[in-house]
Amino acid sequence: MFETLPALSPDPILGLSAAFKEDPSPHKIDLGVGVYKDEHGNTPILKAVSMAQAVLQGRETSKVYITPQGHQGYINGMLDLMFGKDSQVLADKRVAAVQAPGGCGALRILAELLIRCNKDTVVWVSDPTWANHMPLLGDAGITLKTYPYFDKAKATIKFDEMMDCLKDVKKGDVVLLHGCCHNPTGADLSNQQWQAVAALASTNGFLPFVDVAYQGFGDGLEEDAYGLRLLADSVDEMIVAASCSKNFGLYRERVGLAAIITKDASVAKIAQSQIQSVARGIYSMPPSYGGALVDIILADGALNQIWKSEVSEMRERMITLRQLLVENLSMQGVDKDFSFINEQKGMFSFLCISPEHVQHLRSEHSVYFVDSSRVNIAGISKSNVEALAKAIAATLKA
Ligand code: LMR
């Protein structure tokens, strides 16, 4: 029966890793998949994580199932981190939440829950958005539509066009927003723009769906939660998918969180039962290990401080790499003004060059990044930035 299925092309993001591995060039540069890398191109285990592993090793006495909602300590810690310890929605017990298998798992179970509420659910995503949003939501039966977000020619957010589009979104439709460090563009809403979006959500009645995968990588752990917290204070209902892959460096452990803010505490209880039943129907309960580590890190004052300083270190390094890239491009005498890279936040930037240029960089210079021109800033280093800038300059002149 399987011979009737068509073979599919490699994943537009994960497929780059395989292509990179096969490239024999000793000078190849990997700016593809969004993983943090140090100056030597390694993705080390965070110190806070290693220390939490030692604590867990001494504490874990059984491998018996955990509950479908996951570790309650992890859930509480993550809700505090995202919404703030003094959050009103948390005090009012208006939040239902489960630990999910990664941010992807969180997005998928929230999509399944939306379909349970309304089989014709429409989710509006930014143009462009993270490539995997489409299968994660679309394969659950969600109808996807796009709102204008990024102007590639001007390298800025098309905020007026975005708002014009969102004004016409129907009550009950869902609008997916990137909490911070927009993937793929790195172009984030300002606090003033978040205020306008929150006001529109509360008057028009669309359901905000916030994807928080990079908290701490933009301006700081608190600063990056501005939009999320403002929305939580402004609307009756919203949903949130979070990931610990990047800011805890727990990529392979698959640690995420799906949260639902409801009108009141009694609806939150209903939502809790529903989201757990969605999880039970797909994977039963989340993997335990990564959530247990995050629980330990968030609950322990000393480990928390170590983790926070590691997040700051990763953020500061990526800011420095942005500056280095812009300086090196200018030193190569490229005509295009790339200074917008310094304004963008987090792990990604759009270089705003054509797919043909991206292909040329890959085939002629062994520089790997996504066709959209999204680069993983963390893949740049002091040792490869000059070669990278030269390759970009040569490609733009070719
Ligand atoms: C990315 O955007 O590169 C990462 O989130 C990895 C992935 O799964 O796509």
Largest sheet: 7 strands, mixed
Q: What's the CATH first level of the largest domain?
A: Alpha Beta
Helix content: 40-55%
How many structurally independent domains?
2
Average pLDDT: 97
What name does CATH use for the topology of the largest domain?
A: Aspartate Aminotransferase, domain 2
Task: Give the low-confidence spans.
Answer: none
Ends apart, CA distance between termini: 48 Å
Strand content: 5-15%
Q: Widest sheet: strand order?
A: 2-10-9-8-7-3-4
Each distinct ligand: (2S)-2-hydroxybutanedioic acid
Radius of gyration: 21 Å
Count of alpha and pi helical runs:
14
The helix-strand sequence is HEHHHEHEHEEEHEHEHEEHHHEHEEH
Number of strands: 13
Please outline what is shown here.
The chain is an alpha/beta fold. The protein is built from 14 helices and 13 strands.
Walk me through the structure.
47% of the residues are buried. The chain folds into two domains: 11-44 and 313-397, Aspartate Aminotransferase, domain 1 (Alpha-Beta Complex); 49-299, 3-Layer(aba) Sandwich (Aspartate Aminotransferase, domain 2). The chain has helices at residues 14-22, 47-59, 72-83, 88-91, 102-117, 133-138, 159-167, 191-204, 226-234, 265-282, 289-299, 301-331, 355-365, 385-397; strands spanning 29-30, 95-100, 122-127, 143-148, 150-151, 156-157, 174-178, 207-212, 238-243, 256-261, 348-350, 367-368, 374-376. α3 (72-83) packs across α11 (289-299) and α5 (102-117) packs across α10. The strands form four sheets. A seven-stranded mixed β-sheet has the order 2-10-9-8-7-3-4. Strands 1-12 form a two-stranded parallel ribbon. The model has no long low-confidence stretch (mean pLDDT 97). The chain is of the alpha/beta class and 398 residues long. The chain is built from 14 helices and 13 strands. Bound molecules: (2S)-2-hydroxybutanedioic acid (LMR). Residues 13, 33-34, 130, 132, 183 line the site of (2S)-2-hydroxybutanedioic acid (LMR).
